Fold:
Amino acid sequence: MSIPYLRAAGTSLVLDARGTGVPVIVHWGADLGDLNGAMLTTLADTSVPAIAPSSIDVPLRLTLLPTLAQGWSGRPGISGFRPGRGSLAIDLRLVNVRSGERPMGRFALPGTQTLTLLLEDAAAQLSVRTELELSVQGVLRLRHTVRNRNTTAAGAAAFELGSLDVILPVPGRARELLDFTGLWTHERRPQRSTLGHGVWSRESRHGRPGHDDSYLMVAGTPGFGFRSGEVWCTHLAWSGDKRAWAENSALGFSVLGSGELLAPGELGVAAGESYSTPWTVAVYSDAGLDGLSSRLHPWIRSWSTIRTPRPVVLNTWEAVYFEHDLPTLARLADAGAHAGVERFVLDDGWFTGRRDDRRALGDWFVDPVTWPSGLHPLIEHVHAAGLDFGLWVEPEMVSLDSEMARAHPDWVLGGVPEPSATETPALTWRFQRVLDLGHPDAFAWVFARLTALLTEYPIAYLKWDHNRDLLAGSTHRQTAALYRLIDAVRAAHPGVEIESCASGGARIDLGILERVDRVWTSDTNDPLERQEIQRYTGVLIPPEYLGGHLGAATAHTTGRTSELSFRLATALFGAAGIEWNLISASAEELGQITEWITHYKRLRPLLHFGVVVRADPSDPALVLHGVVSRDQNSALFAQVALAAPRDAVPERMRFPGLAPERRYRVAPLLLGGSPRTIQDTPPAWYATLSGSAETPTTPADAASGRGSVTLAGAVLTLVGLPAPLLAPEQAALFAVDAVD
Ligand code: DGJ
Structure:
């Protein structure tokens, strides 16, 4: 029918949608420039491959929905069956293509180019609508909607969907893969592999993406890094079970695929009904992983609910755990207020009977023993100290030891056997079970409790937690109900901000991100762990969403002790907060924290809305990352020693993202004291700043030009500066400001 050509921000996509076959993506990658109709026709014509020996007798094309019927023996784009009639040979035909800029709800963003394809298989009585859009930032989104067009007889007419996935071609040179795995407190561990013939598939059956979520599936040219290489990546915007894969077929095609992971029988599409896949978000870059972020972050910001710099949070969890009492919490709020904290978040432990993690989830009433006058006295105190108030909830969960479970055992996902029954009870996890949000009464009850709390109390913020895998029920139904619940709470209380937490970072994806204002990146506040977790989580998610807290000197999750300067430098690059009993902090520490918060507030327009950059280190022990303002006027960088360096004198610090032709003043920013160095003499340029590297550089110093060196952007990016010899687990911060 046509050859649509979409172009934006250095990316282009050409679709061969001529004839009645399922359309073929002829090109997704670097921008091809101006191509007129004749040139596009030639491109599409010349994309038809040879016919290999011992193969089908027509050229094999990899379509948008490849199936066996097309000769594609790789993973199919769609599969399913009609009960009692065996598996279905699905053979779709193109019926219609519509293009243009049309509204798509919240994502009706100016300049977004869209295509809608309608495909039908008359014999199978199915149709598929494929929506494809390219944003002005170069971010591609695709999804399919399958409709069961059989309306004859109810039972026999059902279509049991096996899978419906978005499959995108990548060139053969993209044979190095990067995806992620992880554990509790160790999320987003990168893993690299080389794609040979076959499928590299990552699957989540947690009912949430999980700590080991694949997160991004990146295929790139060998050796790609943060700043170099061609990369193609996909992410599924879905918070339930999912799979993401890369396949290199011996037929000669490489693809990236993603979709919801459906259990057998989980998704029956009734006659006349339809099912839509989650959106697959896909990005190409010719400038490595930073190139992906440079498209994803502005795109996310274009629809984000975040409009203001993120407040400094004080969270009570690692400060007091379940030991809630008004005088202590009031003192904590006061200590935070003196340091400049802006939001006080009362974590787990405030509701009826919740003294530990074994009981009470579901009983979302303020505990009358700990809080005889409700939360009012605490909130009034917090407000009087100048902070707003946030509250922890875990609405999708229920403890068997709760009034809710005793009254409504049928609301517990997977059921609760009678005490006398012989059946094995379903597994608990952190001593809790999952509330069946798909049950209309359970949904209504939890919605009513949340809105009652939000109505009774001036709550600015909910920390919405989710601390176990589902292990029962339909994760599709549960995830869809979760989205409905958050949407309903937000609609009823539009001013309330929400943080998504799932035992730390086990539910960070673009499906949840549409609905929240912050994500809890990880349960670890250990800065050494956090450096890596934040670096890789930040490839997809902009820093203003990524909660990062200053914890106690000895991290509760690792037992590792870190210096204050390293903890402060790490928590600075995100939505910063504190999760430490400040009542026990020394006067000196409180002074340094106060100074840190002052700098954070000054820097957050840069930190929260700038361009994230990460250098490619030749020594993995040394990491340099930063944020550069969009106008390239200012930047903040951190040189981080994760471990002992490889070389006595490390390679120079090269600062990416600066304007080459401009001149910049570079000044160390000392927070929480100087980073520890192990050097007989610092680099000459560093030693001369303010006379000594040990002397803090204040904004006044920087303004007067003291304590700084001035160099061209090209020099800083391409040549760099000798690094101070940081001891392991130290970070040095550098403020970089244009002088002309
Ligand atoms: C797990 C979260 O990740 C923690 O931050 C804390 O909120 C606890 N749950 C509370 O139970």
